[in-house]
Every structure is written in structure tokens, then in C-alpha cells.
Amino acid sequence: MSQNRPLLPVLALLLLCVPLLCLSQTANSSSANATTNAPTAAAPSSNVTSLNGVPGCRSGLNAIYRFLCDRRAAWGIVLETLASAGFVFSMCLLVGLLVWSLWICLSSRQQNSNSSSIGGTVACMSMFLLATAGIFAITFSFIIRLTPQTCPTRLFLFAVLFSLAFSCLLARCLALLGFGAARGWGEPGVALGLFMVQVIICTEWLILVLLRERKPCAYSQDEFVMLQIYVMCLLAISLILSLRFLCRSCFTYSYSYNGPAHQHWRVHAALLFLTLMLSTCIWVVWITMLTWGNPEVDRRPQWDDPVLSIALVANGWVLLMGHGLSQVAFLCRGEAKSKDAPLSFAGWTSPSADIPGLNSPTAGKDNGSFENESENRRGPRAQPSLRSPYESGFSMSEIDPVKDYTIPRPQTTTYQEPYDEYYDQD
User: Fold this and answer.
1) d(Cα 68, Cα 122) in Å, to the nearest integer?
2) pLDDT in tens, 155-176
3) Phi, psi torsion values for 79, nearest 5 degrees
4) Closest of 237, 250, 249, 126 to residue 188, by C-alpha
5) Is 308 exposed, middle or buried (0-12, 13-18, 19+ CB in 10 A)?
6) Distance between alpha carbon 346 and the CA centroid of its chain, in Å?
7) I need a labelling partner for 59 at 20 to 30 A (CA). Which of 26, 93, 310, 386 fits?
């Protein structure tokens, strides 16, 4: 435990310094792009037009909502359906978790450590489910065309929600690896601390780029990726820690009496690592497509929003099914099994513990080899008798030095020829 504590301040400094050093470069590149006439990002649509004759959309609908109803652009309708289902499922899971935790607190009349120790885990899982529901919700801001209203939502909430989700996963990895700062209620505290760093970064970027320079949200896709540097750091560190926890759970054997618990930790470690690994693959793919793939195939403004929308929906479902649903299931199952009274080993170190069978009164006399005779005899005694634990039943003080305690040996009256009497019988 003491070896892990010096890593926490170093980790915090790295997570704080890396994105803030890139912030000045991002602001300089954005000001340089402002001087050009054709920014790489799609410019916000200032003209308001209505749709007429688009299959699936009613006439007179604003053109920015075209991909929500246009049957010819099926990607919008499919992603809208998947995002809506993911948002509803995340909120139902969150409400069910909160109701279950409230029922556990109210039904537990005895204040045991099991019901009080899950408070931090429930709080961290609630924040994770909120972040997952928000990831599904902001998908609609990318299906809708870029406007001055949707631009701050895209820039701010994309990084903030992913940072909250990955911060909860990182705090969970630290708690599973045994870091003292991430145990109990420290787990949501660590997650909130890591999450606030990205909030500060996004707020500074919006103030420096949008408000100070008074630009109509003109940004390049490279700047959008640079704004996610801290989120990528969280994802990379979480992946490394989850791999370490997976190796520890697979190559460390447990000698406890509860065998299925070790198998439970293996499944938990495998699901956590799989969730972070799939998230990493999704991020590599959408960053590659956004910065290099779309310009190579000459699909720069048309495919940018679909790529980000697909990344949001895919990563949201990976987080929800890989960690959200499985973690809630493990939590409820583990709490249900913990209602059985576990074995208590307190009496092995504390003789005054109330353990059935250990301190029960016994009939008869205890072993006399471990007693002091001065406690059983009345009256003063000049010299207390000492007993050895290897004695069978008498004390060393009871031995009389006058008596002969030697082993008797066989004796015969014929010393010179002891077997003559046998020979005389022939």
C-alpha cells in the first residue's frame, strides 16, 4: 500500500499538465484558422430553410433536422433509435440502482459493514450511468446539423461526458487494485477530481476561443481532437490498470474457503478490460477517420457528423453493457449473498469475543498442566509450584529426593552361573 501512494501525485500532475500545455497550441491554431476563408469544420448554418418533398419529414420542417426523419439518409434514423434506446435503458438502470440501494438501507435494521460499504460504489456507478445516458443524449446534437446552438454542446459535452465515464472506470480500477485513496467513498471522490480537470479545460477553451475572439464557432477537426487529449489519457491509464488487475486476478490463486469469489473477480476483471479495450478501438477508429480517412476519400464535411455519431452510440453501448449492466448485476448479487452471516474470526485474536463454541462453559476440569496450583489451594504458600506444559499430571515439587526412582532391574541369586538350574533338570 505504501508503494502505491507516491504514484497518485505524479499521476495527477501528468493528467493536469499534458492537456493544459496543449491548450495554448490549440488557441493559436484556432486563431490561425480564423484568418482563412474556408475552415475545415462545417460552418454553422445561418440560413433557415424548410424541407419540402423529403420522404419521412413533414413539409415546413427546419432543414437542420433533416437527418432525424429523412428515410433516404438511413444512418440518422438508425442512430436516433439506438441512442434513444440506450438513453432509456441507462436511466432505467440508474433508477433501479438508486431504488435498490434505498431499499437496502431501509431494510437493514442492523447497521453492518456490508450495507455501509457499498455507498461509494453506488455513487460512482450512478455517475457512470449518468455519463452513459448523456453520451447517448448528445448524439442528437451531431445528427442535427452544426448551428451556433449545437456547437458549444458538441465541444463541451463530448469531452466532459466521456471524461466522467472514464474517470469512474479509472477510479474503479484503482479501488480494485487496492489504492487507499479510492476505497469506500474515496472512489467517487477520485472520479470527481479527475472529471473536474476536463471541465476546466473545456471551459477555458470555450472562453478563449469563442467568447474572447467572438468567432461563430469555427473550429477544425484537429482542434476537436486536441480537445480530447485529457480524455485519451484517462482511457489509456484505465486500460493499463485494468490489464494489471486482469493479470493479478488470473495468475494469483486464492486459498480462501470461498472458491466462487475468485471466479467472480476474474469475470469482473475480464469485463472491465474488455470494455476499455473496445472503447480504445472505437476512439482510434473515429480519430483516424475524422483527421485522415475522410479527407483521403474526399468526404470531409459529409462524413464528419456520421462518424462522430456512430462513435458516440457504439461507445455508449459498450460502456453500458460491458460495465454498467454487469457491475450493477455483480453489486446486487454480491449484496444478496452477503446477507448470510459470514464466519467471524475475531475470537482467534480477542479472547473476549462472543463466538459460539469457543467460549462456551465446559464440564469437568481443564488441563492441569496449564494451571497454577496457587490458584486452587487455600492459604499462603512459600514457593509457588511450577508446571511444565509437557508434564502429564504431577508437579516437579512433589518429587521426594530421598526415594529411589530408578528403574528396577532383574536380579538372580546365581551370579557366576545363572543358568545352572536349567541344566540340572536334564
Assistant:
1) 35
2) 999 999 999 999 999 999 999 9
3) -70, -35
4) 126
5) buried
6) 29
7) 310
As a whole number, mean pLDDT of residues 57-76 equals 88
Number of other CB atoms surrounding residue 225 within 10 Å? 16
- Is the separation of the CB atoms in 251 and 265 below 8 Å? no
Q: Topology of domain 82-107+117-253+262-336, per CATH?
A: Rhopdopsin 7-helix transmembrane proteins (1.20.1070)
Summarize the confidence of residues 120-135 as an average pLDDT: 95
**Would you list the domain boundaries of the chain?**
82-107+117-253+262-336
Q: Among 220-224, 347-351, 411-415, which range has the highest average pLDDT?
A: 220-224
| Nearest one of 326, 336, 355, 354 to 115, comparing CA atoms | 336
Residue-wise pLDDT tens digits, 258-272: 455 567 788 989 999
In the chain, the amino acid numbered 31 is S
Q: How many helices (H) and strands (E) does the chain have?
A: 15, 2
d(C-alpha 405, C-alpha 360), whole Å: 42
Task: Give Cα 324 to chain centroid, integer Å.
Answer: 11
